[in-house]
Amino acid sequence: MTSPKIKKYANAQAVAQAFAADLYDFVQQANKAVHVALSGGSTPALLFDILAENYAEKMAWDKIHFWWGDERCVAPTDEQSNYKMTVDHLLGKIEMPEENIHRVMGEWSPEEANKAYIDEISKFLPSHNGWPVFDLIILGMGNDGHTASIFPHEIHLLNDPNICAVAIHPESGQKRVSLTGKVINNAKAISFLVTGKSKTDRVSEIFNKLEGFDKLPSSYIQPVNGQLTFYFDYDAASGIK
User: 134-169, pLDDT tens digit by residue?
Assistant: First the structure.
């Protein structure tokens, strides 16, 4: 396992711009299909806007396969859908082969959607160590230290024996389909996009190994054979010693 890289920028916009440039280079250097798992959230929305505005013509979209690290069990037209957010900010503004977009069928029952997503991942992705291998997984970090839809009350999903699992939001009770920890940590590259003062305490707890950090799912994201990179704004990283 290689040491994590930490990159710091002035604000969320700068984080998104830097990551967009790195993603472009990542895709350019690849000599085969690139399987990327996307995240929901405000910083990815900024990222998608930048990709649509500055990379619509020059990115090799036909080389990329888009997946999602987690998805809410809602229709693809629902405002809470991570897929819809990606369509609104990116997919609706670029030319990308339809067959390269692998969404979670959030309108199905959670169990059916979960099984179908497992089957789709198993069909398209290569495997190593008995787990699928994503080329890149983009993650966020919640104010409670969750990542993907692995929340502290379901931290066992980090070691779930399945590729994906049905997760439950601790407050709303909403069901979601999420990649599990073994798959996430089997990726070739993992990039956390973490911005804002609301993340300062969690980032500090994880990086300084303060009391309770081991109850935060994000602290367990450590790729077995890949590179972990954190893209922070100054606010989020301000507590790192």
Answer: 999 999 999 999 999 999 999 999 999 999 999 999
> In the chain, what are the domain boundaries?
5-237
- The mean pLDDT of 11-18, rounded to a whole number, is 98
Q: Cα-Cα-Cα-Cα dihedral of 75, 76, 80, 81, to 10°?
A: 130
Cα separation, 238 vs 241, in Å, equals 8
| Long-range contact set of residues 205-213: C-beta below 8 Å, sequence gap at least 24 | 205/145, 206/145, 207/239, 207/240, 207/241, 208/239, 208/240, 208/241
Contact 137, 184 (CB under 8 A): yes
Q: Output DSSP code: residue 147.
A: B
The CB-based long-range contact list for 53-56 (8 Å cut-off, 24+ gap) reads 54/20, 55/20, 55/24, 56/93, 56/94, 56/95
pLDDT at residue 241 above 90? no
Report pLDDT for 52: 98
In CATH terms, the fold of domain 5-237 is Rossmann fold (3.40.50)
- Backbone φ and ψ of 70, nearest 5°: -160, 160
In 121-196, DSSP assigns E strands to 127-128, 131-132, 136-139, 164-168, 175-179, 189-194
The set of residues, in sequence order, having a beta carbon less than 8 Å from that of 236 and lying 6+ positions away, is 194, 195, 196, 197, 199, 200, 203
Position 2 confidence tier, pLDDT thresholds 50, 70, 90? confident
Tens of pLDDT, residues 34-51: 999 999 999 999 999 999
